[in-house]
């Protein structure tokens, strides 16, 4: 009887879906067209992205190097604000390019592949959040538990033929969908002009709890 109960318990545990993040690792590159080291970072991340299917690389263009050349047409205020948030969180002296951030918990210069691979390897040591984004038809269900307030972001970016730059998924728009306290929430699947993703992240640009790439 004991053996039978143990077998049933194991079977039930296998039937219940895991309640942790299943989305891709979010890799964010902060870049500028006036940054001399940034083209190398674009090539590095493009190569890494081509070899792995578990990443979402987003390139955020900043404008604080505009005085060195022409104004960066892809730069957004949101990019600079986001990087400042990471600068404070990681205790850095100031923002820099090309900086890469991994799920909001690791950061390094993105120009060297060894740095990038080392940061991705360190992510394996971090515990997986108890948060899940699940698409069900034209709705997206967000569930799980969070230790602190979280933010839900919708990020639009260029992909495929729409991306005529040398960057990987340059960000074109950011929309705050609201705060989240860990209750079950349903979201409408957004319309994407090119590519977009929903990012659930601890408030204050903390750890990324889950990411979902929206596909047509």
In brief, what are we looking at here?
With 216 residues, this protein is an alpha+beta fold.
Based on CA inertia axes, which overall geometry fits?
Answer: globular
Percentage of β-strand residues:
25-35%
Please name the fourth-level CATH homologous superfamily. Answer: Glutaredoxin
Lateral strand order in the biggest sheet: 2-1-3-4
User: What would you say the CATH architecture is?
Assistant: 3-Layer(aba) Sandwich
List low-pLDDT spans. 1-20
Q: Nearest-angstrom radius of gyration?
A: 19 Å
Number of strands: 11
Overall mean confidence score, pLDDT: 90
Q: Kindly provide the name of the CATH class.
A: Alpha Beta
| Helix content class | 10-25%
* CATH topology (fold) name: Glutaredoxin
What is the succession of H and E elements? HEHEHEEHEEEEEEE
Record the SSE blueprint.
Elements: H1 2-15, E1 25-31, H2 38-51, E2 55-61, H3 77-90, E3 99-102, E4 106-109, H4 113-123, E5 131-136, E6 139-144, E7 150-157, E8 171-180, E9 185-188, E10 195-202, E11 208-214
Parallel strand pairs: 1-2
Antiparallel strand pairs: 1-3, 3-4, 5-6, 6-9, 7-8, 7-10, 10-11
